[in-house]
Amino acid sequence: MKKVGFLGPKGTFTEMAAYSLFPKEELVPLKTIPKVLDLAFAKGIDYAVVPIENAIEGTVNITLDYLIHHKPMPIVASISLEIAQHLLFSPNKDRETFVPKKVVSHPQAIAQCHQFLQKNYPEIEIEYADSTGSAAAWLAENPNADACVIANAQAASTYGLAVAQGDIHDFEHNRTRFIVLTAKKEQAPHIVGPEHTGDKTTLMVTLPSDFAGALHQVLSAFAWRKLNLSKIESRPTKTGLGNYFFLIDIDQLMDDVLVPGAIAELTALGCKVEVLGSYATYSSKATASIN
Ligand SMILES: O=C(O)C(=O)C[C@]1(C(=O)O)C=C[C@@H](O)C=C1
Questions:
Q1: 106 lines ligand 1 (CB under 6 A)
Q2: Residue range 109-136: average pLDDT?
Q3: Does residue 206 share a domain with residue 131?
Q4: Is 12 in the pocket of ligand 1 (CB under 6 A)?
Q5: Is residue 170 part of a domain?
Q6: Residue 23: which CATH number?
Q7: Residue 202: CB within 6 Å of ligand 1?
Q8: Where exactly are the transmembrane stretches of this chain (predicted)?
Q9: Which end of the chain is more exposed for a tag (fewer CB within 10 A), N or C?
């Protein structure tokens, strides 16, 4: 059995992602995203599953930055899940009359429900937790707290909390993409359950210096080869204000000609190019209940 580390505890969205991809493997809950990446890098687990991007809030910066700057490992798969955020109360509180003073959740979950909170609880104090699951676990241990949490239905049932209001995320099409990483040689995991939606190659491109038309030249290396890009994002290199690199997702696996050709062209322009992964992408409804 493989060991799959994920942002825990039980009841997180990342657990759903890990379970959708690896229902038969040993799932290992870890407290924070850096802890998951550290353990994968040290080969204490076979695979790491961590969130990377949300449809409402954008990139999960901690994942990307920690991966790139501290624990570089190849991406070997990704999965996108529907994300339904619910407002959960302790069973000790009356759903009709309780007015919580505090809401506890993961920053991404709070951000996805920002307008809901503004409208319904404008005075509420916000407390950030390591994950939605850890917020739910905390409320289960402190059932008399004047607090509520934002988490999913799986967390509600795992921790015996009541769904005071379902689907409180501000935009309907709320999805998060999770990536699978490994520091072990064997690479691509064997995945059968979720729907295979396509393939990606993710590149990290650092420009030699800031010159006129640099990004245009970078993009044209892909354009004339008809390589479709599904994402381009700039992130700070952390070497000084204004220094950025680009993360580029190409909509296909690494091949023998086109992608290496584009990389060679970028290198000839003076860019530094690293391949962060070439992998299959999956999609799932995330409704599976985890035992
Ligand atoms: O807190 C969780 O349940 C997580 O799995 C983390 C996370 C994230 O970091 O984006 C995953 C999916 C949702 O977007 C909200 C939170």
A1: yes
A2: 97
A3: no
A4: yes
A5: no
A6: 3.30.70.260
A7: no
A8: none
A9: C
